[in-house]
Amino acid sequence: MGITKNIAVLPGDGIGSEVTDQAVKVLNAIAERFGHSFNYTHGLIGAVAIDETGNPFPDETEKVCKEADAILFGAIGNPKYDNDPSAKVRPEQGLLKMRKNLGLFANIRPITTYDQLADISPLKNEIIKGVDFVVFRELTSGIYFGEPRGRSEDGNTAFDTCLYKAEEIERVTKLAFEAAQKRSKRLTLVDKANVLATSRLWREKVTAMASNYPDVTLDFMFVDNAAMKIIQNPTHFDVVVTENMFGDIITDEASVLSGSLGMLPSASIGTGVSLYEPIHGSYPQVAGQGKANPVAAILSAAMLLNHSFGLLKESKLIEQAVKKSISAGVCTEDLKPSKIHSTTEVGEFIVNKIKEAVVV
Ligand code: IPM
Ligand code: MN
Fold first, then answer.
1. What would the pLDDT profile of 128-142 be if each residue is shown by its tens digit?
2. Ligand nearest to the CA of 139
3. Could you give the 3-state DSSP secondary structure of residue 269?
4. Domain 122-258 CATH superfamily
5. d(Cα 329, Cα 325) in Å, to the nearest integer?
6. The domain made up of 1-110+271-360 is a member of CATH 3.40.50.300
């Protein structure tokens, strides 16, 4: 029996619309094959929303999100704001407001490697072979949101506040422990407890929770050491839980293991509707040129089907089709294929593989 669902599509800035277009094509191919019906409502966010409404996360978009069964998001950011410290509104504020207002407190970022792409990684094959871990990044607190923040009156001092409450630590950590139970039962807390008070609270709370998960082995790693281990010995990791900013930084770093930032999807979940987004940014340098890798967006759609709609078979079919595109060398330029394919060509190849696949 097919299901009917409403999906909010927020392409955002830069390459966001090109890659989400491919993800929607893939979702449509799935709907057709399995008799599902997906309805899409588009919303504005980021620089495009500022241009049209003055607000990077308009109320209308928030409404569309809250009424949807899941959200597919592209990317945010426009260089015209990056070097303008006096800009009053910024595209990124839209993303942060969306995460906060939708209660998306956990960002799940799986790091997968593909044998066929081992050679394009700057790391040696033997280091990346078998890498498969997942980072649970806390997403609605920490230094990204703490108050007060700002400047002194003379403008010569600036400050941000890193603040964590026990319950903010516990809710994301619970998800990480549960994920570890379903995987190889290892959880690493990445923090900076040798320096930061917030990190010491993380250690205290995470340690206290460990007794509820006796089958999971918990270890701790300072973030600077973790940054090194991700490059030196990435198979050490299975499930990682960490605060907002550390999670932001180490997942960009970890993306290098998979060959390209263009490969990695993520799911943001919390108190209501969930959101799925590539971990890459808006890559304005190539926007509109058909060069962007749509795989992260397409795999985000696969995560959406699995996590929000419980459609595991459909989700796996997308992952298999993506693997086939990599094996066939039908890839965008970031993956250095012998022949470069465009964003749309990669999307269409994956759609065709979904159409052709024998489903049992
Ligand atoms: C990400 C991005 C965002 C973040 C930016 C665009 C605000 O880098 O989703 O990782 O820092 O969270
Ligand atoms: Mn980031």
1. 999 999 999 999 999
2. 1
3. strand
4. Isopropylmalate Dehydrogenase (3.40.718.10)
5. 6
6. no
